[in-house]
Input
Amino acid sequence: MNRGKTIGRLLGIVRRDPLAAAAFLFLLLLAIAALFPEQIAAMSPNRPSRLRLLPPGDVYLFGTDQFGRDIFARCVHATSVSLLVGLTTVAIALLLGVPLGAIAAFRSPGKIDSGIMRTMDVLMAFPPIVLAIAVVAALGTQDIEIGPFTVPHITKVMVVIGLLNVPKVARIVRASVLVERNEQYVMAARAVGASEARVLFREVLPNCASPVAVYATLLVATSILTEASLSFLGLGIQPPQPSWGGMLADSRTYVMSGQWWLTVFPGLLIFLSVAAFNLAGDLLRDALDPAQITRRGDA
Amino acid sequence: MKTPLLELAAVSKHYEVAAAPLAGLLSERPKVRAVEGVSLSVAQGEIMGLVGESGSGKSTLGRLALLLEPPTAGSVRFAGADPQADLNAFRRRAQMVFQDPQSSLNRSKTVGEILAMPLQVHDVGASRVARRARVAELLTSVGLRADAATRYPHELSGGQRQRVGIARALAIEPAFIVLDEPTSALDVSIQAQIANLLVELQQRLALTYLFISHDLRLVRWLCDRVAVMYLGRIVETGSAAALWQAPRHPYAQALLAAATAERAAPSGIGGEVPSPIAPPPGCAFHPRCAFAGPRCAREVPASRGDAQTNVACHLYDGGVA
Output
Protein backbone atom coordinates (compact mmCIF):
# COMPACT_ATOMS: atom_id res chain seq x y z
CA MET A 1 0.00 0.00 0.00
CA ASN A 2 3.01 2.23 0.58
CA ARG A 3 4.30 1.53 -2.89
CA GLY A 4 1.08 2.74 -4.52
CA LYS A 5 1.33 5.95 -2.57
CA THR A 6 4.96 6.48 -3.58
CA ILE A 7 4.13 6.00 -7.24
CA GLY A 8 1.20 8.38 -6.91
CA ARG A 9 3.41 11.00 -5.33
CA LEU A 10 6.02 10.44 -8.04
CA LEU A 11 3.45 11.19 -10.73
CA GLY A 12 2.34 14.30 -8.87
CA ILE A 13 5.89 15.62 -8.76
CA VAL A 14 6.46 14.89 -12.45
CA ARG A 15 3.46 17.07 -13.20
CA ARG A 16 4.74 19.88 -11.01
CA ASP A 17 8.40 19.67 -11.98
CA PRO A 18 8.89 19.31 -15.76
CA LEU A 19 12.70 19.32 -15.54
CA ALA A 20 12.61 16.28 -13.29
CA ALA A 21 10.10 14.75 -15.67
CA ALA A 22 12.49 15.31 -18.58
CA ALA A 23 15.29 13.66 -16.62
CA PHE A 24 13.04 10.73 -15.86
CA LEU A 25 12.04 10.40 -19.50
CA PHE A 26 15.69 10.49 -20.58
CA LEU A 27 16.55 7.73 -18.13
CA LEU A 28 13.64 5.72 -19.49
CA LEU A 29 15.02 6.16 -23.03
CA LEU A 30 18.46 5.07 -21.82
CA ALA A 31 16.94 1.98 -20.25
CA ILE A 32 15.14 1.11 -23.48
CA ALA A 33 18.34 1.65 -25.47
CA ALA A 34 20.22 -0.56 -23.03
CA LEU A 35 17.66 -3.36 -23.23
CA PHE A 36 16.90 -3.31 -26.98
CA PRO A 37 19.94 -1.84 -28.78
CA GLU A 38 19.31 -3.88 -31.95
CA GLN A 39 15.77 -2.58 -32.34
CA ILE A 40 16.86 1.05 -31.99
CA ALA A 41 20.06 1.12 -34.01
CA ALA A 42 19.75 -0.66 -37.35
CA MET A 43 23.50 -0.56 -38.14
CA SER A 44 26.15 -2.76 -36.61
CA PRO A 45 28.16 -0.93 -33.96
CA ASN A 46 31.40 -2.71 -34.91
CA ARG A 47 31.43 -3.40 -38.67
CA PRO A 48 33.76 -0.97 -40.43
CA SER A 49 32.82 0.55 -43.80
CA ARG A 50 34.41 2.79 -46.40
CA LEU A 51 32.16 5.68 -45.41
CA ARG A 52 34.65 7.23 -43.00
CA LEU A 53 34.15 10.43 -40.96
CA LEU A 54 30.75 11.21 -42.47
CA PRO A 55 29.05 14.16 -40.75
CA PRO A 56 25.63 13.56 -39.11
CA GLY A 57 22.92 13.02 -41.71
CA ASP A 58 19.75 11.09 -42.59
CA VAL A 59 21.30 7.61 -42.70
CA TYR A 60 24.03 8.09 -40.16
CA LEU A 61 22.18 10.11 -37.53
CA PHE A 62 25.33 10.90 -35.54
CA GLY A 63 27.77 10.48 -38.47
CA THR A 64 30.51 7.84 -38.79
CA ASP A 65 33.93 7.49 -37.15
CA GLN A 66 37.42 7.03 -38.55
CA PHE A 67 36.65 3.37 -39.40
CA GLY A 68 33.30 4.18 -40.99
CA ARG A 69 31.30 2.76 -38.08
CA ASP A 70 27.88 4.26 -37.25
CA ILE A 71 28.36 6.50 -34.19
CA PHE A 72 24.64 6.31 -33.35
CA ALA A 73 24.77 2.53 -33.22
CA ARG A 74 27.95 2.60 -31.13
CA CYS A 75 26.41 5.11 -28.70
CA VAL A 76 23.27 3.00 -28.33
CA HIS A 77 25.21 -0.23 -27.84
CA ALA A 78 27.45 1.44 -25.23
CA THR A 79 24.43 2.43 -23.14
CA SER A 80 23.91 -1.00 -21.61
CA VAL A 81 27.52 -1.23 -20.43
CA SER A 82 27.43 2.23 -18.88
CA LEU A 83 24.13 1.62 -17.11
CA LEU A 84 25.20 -1.85 -16.02
CA VAL A 85 28.42 -0.51 -14.54
CA GLY A 86 26.61 2.41 -12.89
CA LEU A 87 23.86 0.29 -11.33
CA THR A 88 25.97 -2.73 -10.37
CA THR A 89 28.67 -0.69 -8.66
CA VAL A 90 26.04 1.18 -6.67
CA ALA A 91 24.36 -2.11 -5.77
CA ILE A 92 27.69 -3.43 -4.46
CA ALA A 93 28.30 -0.18 -2.56
CA LEU A 94 24.81 -0.28 -0.99
CA LEU A 95 24.97 -3.98 -0.16
CA LEU A 96 28.11 -3.48 1.92
CA GLY A 97 27.86 0.20 2.86
CA VAL A 98 24.34 0.25 4.34
CA PRO A 99 24.82 -2.50 6.95
CA LEU A 100 28.35 -1.34 7.79
CA GLY A 101 27.28 2.27 8.31
CA ALA A 102 24.14 1.30 10.22
CA ILE A 103 25.96 -1.05 12.58
CA ALA A 104 28.73 1.51 13.13
CA ALA A 105 26.16 4.15 14.07
CA PHE A 106 24.26 1.83 16.41
CA ARG A 107 27.48 0.86 18.17
CA SER A 108 28.75 4.44 18.33
CA PRO A 109 30.78 5.46 20.19
CA GLY A 110 32.79 2.29 20.59
CA LYS A 111 35.37 -0.07 19.18
CA ILE A 112 33.09 -1.49 16.47
CA ASP A 113 32.22 1.99 15.24
CA SER A 114 35.86 3.11 15.25
CA GLY A 115 37.01 -0.11 13.59
CA ILE A 116 34.49 0.11 10.75
CA MET A 117 34.86 3.81 10.13
CA ARG A 118 38.70 3.88 10.25
CA THR A 119 38.74 1.05 7.69
CA MET A 120 36.39 3.14 5.57
CA ASP A 121 38.75 6.11 5.95
CA VAL A 122 41.63 4.00 4.66
CA LEU A 123 39.57 2.96 1.63
CA MET A 124 38.55 6.59 1.12
CA ALA A 125 42.19 7.64 1.06
CA PHE A 126 42.90 5.75 -2.18
CA PRO A 127 42.59 7.94 -5.25
CA PRO A 128 39.92 5.95 -7.12
CA ILE A 129 41.33 6.22 -10.64
CA VAL A 130 44.86 5.38 -9.51
CA LEU A 131 43.64 2.38 -7.52
CA ALA A 132 41.54 1.18 -10.44
CA ILE A 133 44.58 1.52 -12.71
CA ALA A 134 46.66 -0.48 -10.21
CA VAL A 135 44.07 -3.26 -10.02
CA VAL A 136 43.66 -3.46 -13.77
CA ALA A 137 47.45 -3.39 -14.17
CA ALA A 138 47.75 -6.28 -11.70
CA LEU A 139 44.89 -8.39 -13.07
CA GLY A 140 45.16 -7.43 -16.74
CA THR A 141 42.37 -6.49 -19.11
CA GLN A 142 41.49 -10.04 -20.14
CA ASP A 143 38.76 -12.23 -18.65
CA ILE A 144 39.87 -14.39 -15.73
CA GLU A 145 39.01 -18.07 -15.43
CA ILE A 146 38.27 -19.21 -11.90
CA GLY A 147 37.42 -22.90 -12.07
CA PRO A 148 34.32 -23.29 -14.21
CA PHE A 149 33.51 -19.57 -14.01
CA THR A 150 34.76 -16.88 -16.32
CA VAL A 151 35.02 -13.45 -14.72
CA PRO A 152 34.74 -10.92 -17.51
CA HIS A 153 37.08 -7.96 -17.33
CA ILE A 154 34.11 -5.62 -16.90
CA THR A 155 33.14 -7.44 -13.68
CA LYS A 156 36.53 -6.66 -12.19
CA VAL A 157 36.03 -3.01 -13.06
CA MET A 158 32.58 -3.01 -11.45
CA VAL A 159 33.81 -4.68 -8.26
CA VAL A 160 36.69 -2.19 -7.93
CA ILE A 161 34.49 0.87 -8.47
CA GLY A 162 31.82 -0.63 -6.22
CA LEU A 163 34.23 -1.28 -3.34
CA LEU A 164 35.63 2.23 -3.66
CA ASN A 165 32.11 3.58 -3.15
CA VAL A 166 31.38 1.52 -0.02
CA PRO A 167 32.90 4.09 2.38
CA LYS A 168 30.88 6.94 0.92
CA VAL A 169 27.62 5.02 1.38
CA ALA A 170 28.67 3.86 4.86
CA ARG A 171 29.32 7.44 5.94
CA ILE A 172 25.97 8.71 4.67
CA VAL A 173 24.13 5.84 6.35
CA ARG A 174 26.04 6.26 9.60
CA ALA A 175 25.31 9.99 9.71
CA SER A 176 21.58 9.47 9.06
CA VAL A 177 21.30 6.67 11.61
CA LEU A 178 23.13 8.77 14.21
CA VAL A 179 20.52 11.47 13.78
CA GLU A 180 17.58 9.06 13.76
CA ARG A 181 18.58 7.03 16.79
CA ASN A 182 18.13 10.08 19.03
CA GLU A 183 14.48 10.35 18.02
CA GLN A 184 12.06 9.29 20.71
CA TYR A 185 10.43 6.65 18.52
CA VAL A 186 13.63 4.61 18.87
CA MET A 187 13.32 4.62 22.63
CA ALA A 188 9.60 3.95 22.25
CA ALA A 189 10.37 0.85 20.18
CA ARG A 190 12.88 -0.31 22.80
CA ALA A 191 10.37 0.35 25.59
CA VAL A 192 7.91 -1.86 23.77
CA GLY A 193 10.54 -4.61 23.74
CA ALA A 194 11.61 -4.60 20.10
CA SER A 195 14.97 -6.28 19.45
CA GLU A 196 17.95 -4.16 18.45
CA ALA A 197 17.87 -5.65 14.95
CA ARG A 198 14.19 -4.82 14.61
CA VAL A 199 14.74 -1.26 15.83
CA LEU A 200 17.62 -0.75 13.41
CA PHE A 201 16.26 -2.41 10.28
CA ARG A 202 12.49 -1.93 10.62
CA GLU A 203 12.23 1.38 12.49
CA VAL A 204 15.37 3.43 11.86
CA LEU A 205 16.67 2.45 8.42
CA PRO A 206 13.42 3.16 6.49
CA ASN A 207 13.72 6.75 7.70
CA CYS A 208 17.26 6.92 6.31
CA ALA A 209 16.12 5.69 2.90
CA SER A 210 15.63 9.16 1.52
CA PRO A 211 19.21 10.51 1.90
CA VAL A 212 20.65 7.13 0.94
CA ALA A 213 18.50 6.80 -2.19
CA VAL A 214 19.37 10.32 -3.23
CA TYR A 215 23.05 9.66 -2.70
CA ALA A 216 22.83 6.34 -4.54
CA THR A 217 21.46 8.00 -7.67
CA LEU A 218 24.28 10.54 -7.51
CA LEU A 219 26.68 7.61 -7.15
CA VAL A 220 25.29 6.01 -10.31
CA ALA A 221 26.29 9.21 -12.08
CA THR A 222 29.83 9.27 -10.67
CA SER A 223 30.25 5.55 -11.37
CA ILE A 224 29.32 6.11 -15.00
CA LEU A 225 31.93 8.87 -15.05
CA THR A 226 34.56 6.64 -13.44
CA GLU A 227 33.87 3.89 -15.96
CA ALA A 228 34.09 6.45 -18.79
CA SER A 229 37.40 7.69 -17.40
CA LEU A 230 38.79 4.16 -17.16
CA SER A 231 37.64 3.36 -20.68
CA PHE A 232 39.12 6.63 -21.89
CA LEU A 233 42.44 5.48 -20.40
CA GLY A 234 42.04 2.11 -22.11
CA LEU A 235 41.57 0.19 -18.85
CA GLY A 236 37.80 -0.17 -18.85
CA ILE A 237 35.70 -1.59 -21.64
CA GLN A 238 38.01 -3.14 -24.24
CA PRO A 239 37.67 -2.46 -27.97
CA PRO A 240 35.95 -3.34 -30.20
CA GLN A 241 33.09 -3.30 -27.66
CA PRO A 242 31.78 0.29 -27.72
CA SER A 243 31.78 2.49 -24.62
CA TRP A 244 31.21 6.22 -24.30
CA GLY A 245 34.56 6.79 -22.61
CA GLY A 246 36.37 4.64 -25.17
CA MET A 247 34.71 6.50 -28.03
CA LEU A 248 35.90 9.79 -26.55
CA ALA A 249 39.43 8.41 -26.34
CA ASP A 250 39.41 7.22 -29.96
CA SER A 251 38.10 10.55 -31.21
CA ARG A 252 40.48 12.89 -29.48
CA THR A 253 42.76 13.32 -32.49
CA TYR A 254 39.78 14.54 -34.55
CA VAL A 255 38.69 17.29 -32.12
CA MET A 256 41.12 19.75 -33.72
CA SER A 257 40.49 18.76 -37.34
CA GLY A 258 36.77 19.67 -37.37
CA GLN A 259 35.08 16.23 -37.05
CA TRP A 260 33.24 17.35 -33.89
CA TRP A 261 30.59 14.64 -34.08
CA LEU A 262 33.05 11.94 -33.02
CA THR A 263 33.50 13.62 -29.63
CA VAL A 264 30.27 15.51 -29.06
CA PHE A 265 27.77 12.63 -29.15
CA PRO A 266 29.39 10.24 -26.64
CA GLY A 267 30.38 13.26 -24.53
CA LEU A 268 26.82 14.57 -24.60
CA LEU A 269 25.49 11.16 -23.58
CA ILE A 270 27.83 11.00 -20.59
CA PHE A 271 26.86 14.53 -19.60
CA LEU A 272 23.12 13.99 -20.05
CA SER A 273 22.98 10.68 -18.23
CA VAL A 274 24.98 12.06 -15.29
CA ALA A 275 22.72 15.13 -15.17
CA ALA A 276 19.60 12.97 -15.46
CA PHE A 277 20.65 10.72 -12.57
CA ASN A 278 21.37 13.78 -10.43
CA LEU A 279 17.95 15.29 -11.18
CA ALA A 280 16.30 11.93 -10.57
CA GLY A 281 17.97 11.93 -7.16
CA ASP A 282 16.16 15.15 -6.23
CA LEU A 283 12.91 13.72 -7.51
CA LEU A 284 13.36 10.59 -5.43
CA ARG A 285 14.04 12.61 -2.30
CA ASP A 286 10.69 14.35 -2.65
CA ALA A 287 8.85 11.15 -3.43
CA LEU A 288 10.25 9.28 -0.42
CA ASP A 289 9.29 11.88 2.17
CA PRO A 290 5.56 11.71 2.89
CA ALA A 291 5.62 14.82 5.10
CA GLN A 292 7.33 16.93 2.48
CA ILE A 293 4.62 16.31 -0.09
CA THR A 294 1.80 17.24 2.24
CA ARG A 295 3.61 20.42 3.14
CA ARG A 296 4.13 21.21 -0.51
CA GLY A 297 0.52 20.39 -1.29
CA ASP A 298 -0.68 22.69 1.46
CA ALA A 299 1.43 25.57 0.26
CA MET B 1 -0.31 -0.22 53.14
CA LYS B 2 -0.63 -1.08 49.49
CA THR B 3 1.93 -3.38 47.98
CA PRO B 4 4.60 -1.56 45.99
CA LEU B 5 4.60 -2.30 42.26
CA LEU B 6 7.80 -0.48 41.47
CA GLU B 7 10.66 -0.07 43.90
CA LEU B 8 13.81 1.92 43.20
CA ALA B 9 16.56 1.44 45.77
CA ALA B 10 19.48 3.90 45.86
CA VAL B 11 19.45 4.21 42.08
CA SER B 12 22.14 6.38 40.46
CA LYS B 13 22.91 7.29 36.88
CA HIS B 14 26.15 9.00 35.92
CA TYR B 15 27.05 9.94 32.38
CA GLU B 16 30.64 10.39 31.32
CA VAL B 17 31.15 13.70 29.65
CA ALA B 18 32.70 13.38 26.21
CA ALA B 19 36.09 14.99 26.60
CA ALA B 20 39.17 15.41 24.43
CA PRO B 21 40.76 11.99 23.77
CA LEU B 22 43.78 12.51 26.02
CA ALA B 23 42.07 14.54 28.77
CA GLY B 24 41.19 11.33 30.61
CA LEU B 25 44.87 10.54 31.17
CA LEU B 26 45.55 13.63 33.25
CA SER B 27 42.50 13.71 35.48
CA GLU B 28 39.39 11.72 36.12
CA ARG B 29 36.81 12.12 33.39
CA PRO B 30 34.08 14.55 34.48
CA LYS B 31 30.70 12.93 35.10
CA VAL B 32 27.19 14.25 34.95
CA ARG B 33 25.42 12.97 38.05
CA ALA B 34 21.95 12.91 36.53
CA VAL B 35 20.44 10.75 39.26
CA GLU B 36 22.10 10.24 42.64
CA GLY B 37 20.99 7.59 45.13
CA VAL B 38 17.25 7.82 44.57
CA SER B 39 14.87 5.52 46.43
CA LEU B 40 11.24 5.58 45.44
CA SER B 41 8.35 3.17 45.66
CA VAL B 42 5.16 3.32 43.67
CA ALA B 43 2.18 1.39 45.00
CA GLN B 44 -0.15 -0.71 42.89
CA GLY B 45 -2.93 1.44 41.43
CA GLU B 46 -1.33 4.69 42.49
CA ILE B 47 -0.46 7.80 40.46
CA MET B 48 2.95 8.92 41.61
CA GLY B 49 4.04 12.40 40.56
CA LEU B 50 7.65 13.30 39.96
CA VAL B 51 8.33 17.01 39.80
CA GLY B 52 11.39 19.19 39.45
CA GLU B 53 13.03 21.73 37.20
CA SER B 54 14.48 20.88 33.81
CA GLY B 55 17.72 19.00 34.33
CA SER B 56 16.74 17.72 37.76
CA GLY B 57 17.00 14.16 36.48
CA LYS B 58 13.31 13.28 36.54
CA SER B 59 13.18 12.03 32.93
CA THR B 60 16.37 10.03 33.47
CA LEU B 61 14.77 8.47 36.54
CA GLY B 62 11.75 7.54 34.40
CA ARG B 63 13.99 5.76 31.90
CA LEU B 64 15.87 4.00 34.69
CA ALA B 65 12.58 2.77 36.14
CA LEU B 66 11.83 1.08 32.81
CA LEU B 67 15.44 -0.12 32.42
CA LEU B 68 15.69 1.75 29.15
CA GLU B 69 19.09 2.71 30.50
CA PRO B 70 21.12 0.63 32.93
CA PRO B 71 21.53 2.33 36.31
CA THR B 72 25.12 3.08 37.35
CA ALA B 73 24.26 1.87 40.86
CA GLY B 74 21.24 0.71 42.79
CA SER B 75 18.46 -1.69 41.93
CA VAL B 76 15.04 -1.67 40.33
CA ARG B 77 12.40 -4.15 41.42
CA PHE B 78 9.05 -4.64 39.77
CA ALA B 79 6.19 -6.56 41.42
CA GLY B 80 8.67 -7.91 43.94
CA ALA B 81 11.03 -9.40 41.36
CA ASP B 82 14.10 -8.40 39.40
CA PRO B 83 12.81 -7.28 35.98
CA GLN B 84 16.17 -8.17 34.40
CA ALA B 85 15.35 -11.83 34.97
CA ASP B 86 12.66 -11.72 32.30
CA LEU B 87 13.03 -8.44 30.48
CA ASN B 88 10.49 -9.39 27.83
CA ALA B 89 7.78 -10.02 30.41
CA PHE B 90 8.72 -6.74 32.10
CA ARG B 91 8.33 -4.84 28.82
CA ARG B 92 4.83 -6.29 28.49
CA ARG B 93 3.86 -4.96 31.89
CA ALA B 94 5.66 -1.59 32.00
CA GLN B 95 5.28 0.99 29.25
CA MET B 96 6.07 4.62 28.55
CA VAL B 97 4.37 7.66 27.04
CA PHE B 98 6.80 10.23 25.73
CA GLN B 99 6.93 13.98 25.93
CA ASP B 100 7.13 14.86 22.27
CA PRO B 101 4.45 13.07 20.24
CA GLN B 102 6.10 14.35 17.05
CA SER B 103 9.37 12.57 17.69
CA SER B 104 7.98 9.54 19.51
CA LEU B 105 5.96 8.34 16.51
CA ASN B 106 7.89 6.93 13.57
CA ARG B 107 7.10 9.34 10.73
CA SER B 108 7.33 6.77 7.96
CA LYS B 109 4.77 4.43 9.51
CA THR B 110 1.00 4.72 9.60
CA VAL B 111 -0.79 4.90 12.91
CA GLY B 112 -1.99 1.34 12.34
CA GLU B 113 1.57 0.09 11.82
CA ILE B 114 2.78 1.98 14.90
CA LEU B 115 0.09 0.40 17.07
CA ALA B 116 0.52 -3.07 15.58
CA MET B 117 4.26 -3.10 16.29
CA PRO B 118 3.99 -3.90 20.02
CA LEU B 119 1.48 -6.63 19.17
CA GLN B 120 3.90 -8.18 16.67
CA VAL B 121 6.86 -7.95 19.04
CA HIS B 122 4.97 -9.77 21.77
CA ASP B 123 3.05 -12.10 19.44
CA VAL B 124 -0.32 -10.78 20.53
CA GLY B 125 -3.20 -11.44 18.17
CA ALA B 126 -3.07 -14.58 16.11
CA SER B 127 -3.83 -13.08 12.72
CA ARG B 128 -3.56 -9.85 10.84
CA VAL B 129 -7.32 -9.44 11.11
CA ALA B 130 -7.22 -9.88 14.89
CA ARG B 131 -4.45 -7.31 15.14
CA ARG B 132 -6.37 -4.86 13.01
CA ALA B 133 -9.37 -5.27 15.28
CA ARG B 134 -7.18 -4.66 18.33
CA VAL B 135 -5.72 -1.52 16.71
CA ALA B 136 -9.23 -0.21 16.07
CA GLU B 137 -10.19 -0.99 19.65
CA LEU B 138 -7.11 0.86 20.95
CA LEU B 139 -7.85 3.91 18.82
CA THR B 140 -11.42 4.04 20.09
CA SER B 141 -10.30 3.68 23.69
CA VAL B 142 -8.14 6.83 23.41
CA GLY B 143 -10.92 8.78 21.72
CA LEU B 144 -9.78 8.53 18.10
CA ARG B 145 -11.72 7.18 15.16
CA ALA B 146 -10.79 3.69 14.04
CA ASP B 147 -10.03 4.93 10.52
CA ALA B 148 -7.12 6.96 11.92
CA ALA B 149 -5.12 3.74 11.48
CA THR B 150 -4.45 4.56 7.84
CA ARG B 151 -3.14 8.05 8.60
CA TYR B 152 0.49 9.10 8.96
CA PRO B 153 1.53 10.90 12.17
CA HIS B 154 2.11 14.18 10.33
CA GLU B 155 -1.52 14.15 9.25
CA LEU B 156 -2.67 14.30 12.88
CA SER B 157 -2.77 17.20 15.33
CA GLY B 158 -0.49 17.28 18.38
CA GLY B 159 -3.26 16.10 20.69
CA GLN B 160 -4.24 13.27 18.34
CA ARG B 161 -0.59 12.20 18.09
CA GLN B 162 -0.29 12.03 21.85
CA ARG B 163 -3.45 9.90 21.92
CA VAL B 164 -1.69 7.53 19.51
CA GLY B 165 1.34 7.54 21.83
CA ILE B 166 -0.94 6.58 24.73
CA ALA B 167 -2.65 3.89 22.64
CA ARG B 168 0.76 2.40 21.81
CA ALA B 169 1.63 2.22 25.51
CA LEU B 170 -1.70 0.49 26.18
CA ALA B 171 -1.40 -1.95 23.28
CA ILE B 172 0.00 -4.84 25.28
CA GLU B 173 -2.11 -4.18 28.36
CA PRO B 174 0.59 -3.06 30.78
CA ALA B 175 0.10 -2.60 34.52
CA PHE B 176 2.46 0.33 34.86
CA ILE B 177 3.13 3.37 32.64
CA VAL B 178 5.78 6.04 32.93
CA LEU B 179 4.33 9.29 31.60
CA ASP B 180 7.23 11.57 30.72
CA GLU B 181 5.70 15.05 30.57
CA PRO B 182 2.89 13.76 28.34
CA THR B 183 1.15 17.12 28.12
CA SER B 184 3.97 19.66 28.08
CA ALA B 185 4.32 19.72 24.29
CA LEU B 186 0.60 20.38 23.81
CA ASP B 187 -1.64 23.44 23.76
CA VAL B 188 -3.25 24.29 27.09
CA SER B 189 -6.74 23.35 25.91
CA ILE B 190 -5.48 19.97 24.69
CA GLN B 191 -3.50 19.37 27.90
CA ALA B 192 -6.72 19.10 29.90
CA GLN B 193 -8.22 16.62 27.42
CA ILE B 194 -5.15 14.39 27.56
CA ALA B 195 -5.02 14.62 31.36
CA ASN B 196 -8.68 13.62 31.57
CA LEU B 197 -8.06 10.73 29.21
CA LEU B 198 -5.13 9.54 31.34
CA VAL B 199 -7.25 9.60 34.52
CA GLU B 200 -10.12 7.80 32.83
CA LEU B 201 -7.80 5.08 31.49
CA GLN B 202 -6.09 4.72 34.86
CA GLN B 203 -9.41 4.08 36.58
CA ARG B 204 -10.87 1.86 33.88
CA LEU B 205 -7.77 -0.32 33.40
CA ALA B 206 -6.51 -0.16 37.01
CA LEU B 207 -3.17 1.25 35.90
CA THR B 208 -0.27 2.52 37.95
CA TYR B 209 1.40 5.72 36.74
CA LEU B 210 4.70 7.42 37.33
CA PHE B 211 3.74 10.90 36.17
CA ILE B 212 6.75 13.10 35.37
CA SER B 213 5.93 16.78 35.05
CA HIS B 214 6.91 20.27 35.94
CA ASP B 215 3.29 21.40 35.91
CA LEU B 216 2.53 21.44 39.63
CA ARG B 217 -1.17 22.23 39.24
CA LEU B 218 -1.62 19.23 36.99
CA VAL B 219 0.35 17.04 39.39
CA ARG B 220 -1.75 18.12 42.34
CA TRP B 221 -4.94 17.43 40.49
CA LEU B 222 -3.80 14.09 39.04
CA CYS B 223 -1.49 12.45 41.55
CA ASP B 224 -1.95 10.55 44.80
CA ARG B 225 1.64 11.09 45.91
CA VAL B 226 4.43 13.34 44.72
CA ALA B 227 8.22 13.20 44.85
CA VAL B 228 10.19 16.42 44.40
CA MET B 229 13.57 16.15 42.67
CA TYR B 230 16.43 18.61 42.80
CA LEU B 231 19.73 18.04 41.03
CA GLY B 232 19.39 14.27 40.77
CA ARG B 233 18.07 13.64 44.31
CA ILE B 234 14.61 13.31 45.74
CA VAL B 235 14.32 16.00 48.42
CA GLU B 236 10.78 15.31 49.57
CA THR B 237 8.09 12.69 49.08
CA GLY B 238 4.55 12.84 50.37
CA SER B 239 0.88 12.71 49.53
CA ALA B 240 -0.11 15.34 46.99
CA ALA B 241 -2.50 16.96 49.46
CA ALA B 242 0.03 17.12 52.29
CA LEU B 243 2.78 18.41 50.05
CA TRP B 244 0.51 21.07 48.67
CA GLN B 245 -0.73 22.13 52.12
CA ALA B 246 2.55 22.05 53.99
CA PRO B 247 5.69 21.44 52.00
CA ARG B 248 8.61 20.76 54.33
CA HIS B 249 11.76 20.94 52.24
CA PRO B 250 12.79 24.56 51.50
CA TYR B 251 13.07 23.71 47.80
CA ALA B 252 9.57 22.21 47.71
CA GLN B 253 8.31 25.31 49.52
CA ALA B 254 9.92 27.60 46.98
CA LEU B 255 8.69 25.50 44.06
CA LEU B 256 5.10 25.64 45.29
CA ALA B 257 5.38 29.33 46.06
CA ALA B 258 6.44 29.92 42.49
CA ALA B 259 3.52 27.85 41.20
CA THR B 260 0.81 29.50 43.27
CA ALA B 261 0.48 33.22 42.82
CA GLU B 262 -1.83 33.61 45.82
CA ARG B 263 0.64 32.08 48.26
CA ALA B 264 3.16 34.53 49.66
CA ALA B 265 6.67 33.35 48.90
CA PRO B 266 8.36 32.23 52.13
CA SER B 267 11.70 32.01 50.45
CA GLY B 268 12.44 33.08 46.93
CA ILE B 269 15.08 31.01 45.17
CA GLY B 270 18.04 33.07 44.09
CA GLY B 271 20.70 32.06 41.62
CA GLU B 272 20.86 29.31 39.03
CA VAL B 273 20.61 25.54 39.22
CA PRO B 274 24.22 24.36 39.79
CA SER B 275 25.87 22.13 37.22
CA PRO B 276 25.26 18.41 37.79
CA ILE B 277 28.90 17.87 36.70
CA ALA B 278 30.11 19.61 39.87
CA PRO B 279 27.17 19.60 42.32
CA PRO B 280 27.71 21.60 45.52
CA PRO B 281 29.04 19.56 48.47
CA GLY B 282 26.65 18.61 51.22
CA CYS B 283 23.04 19.40 50.40
CA ALA B 284 22.94 20.29 46.71
CA PHE B 285 20.36 22.99 47.44
CA HIS B 286 22.33 24.82 50.15
CA PRO B 287 23.79 27.66 47.98
CA ARG B 288 20.24 28.76 47.14
CA CYS B 289 18.54 27.89 50.42
CA ALA B 290 17.34 30.63 52.79
CA PHE B 291 17.72 28.34 55.82
CA ALA B 292 21.14 26.91 55.02
CA GLY B 293 23.65 26.56 57.85
CA PRO B 294 27.26 25.32 58.01
CA ARG B 295 26.18 21.69 58.29
CA CYS B 296 24.33 21.89 54.95
CA ALA B 297 27.59 22.56 53.10
CA ARG B 298 29.34 19.58 54.76
CA GLU B 299 26.86 16.76 55.03
CA VAL B 300 24.45 15.31 52.51
CA PRO B 301 21.13 15.19 54.38
CA ALA B 302 19.75 11.67 54.72
CA SER B 303 16.17 11.01 53.78
CA ARG B 304 14.08 10.84 56.97
CA GLY B 305 10.72 9.16 57.12
CA ASP B 306 9.32 6.05 55.48
CA ALA B 307 8.79 5.05 51.86
CA GLN B 308 5.49 6.95 51.79
CA THR B 309 6.47 10.28 53.33
CA ASN B 310 10.01 11.55 53.68
CA VAL B 311 12.16 14.62 53.48
CA ALA B 312 15.92 15.04 53.02
CA CYS B 313 16.80 18.21 54.94
CA HIS B 314 18.88 18.96 58.04
CA LEU B 315 16.10 21.25 59.30
CA TYR B 316 14.20 18.12 60.29
CA ASP B 317 17.29 16.28 61.46
CA GLY B 318 18.65 18.18 64.43
CA GLY B 319 19.21 21.56 62.84
CA VAL B 320 21.49 23.13 60.29
CA ALA B 321 24.26 24.42 62.55
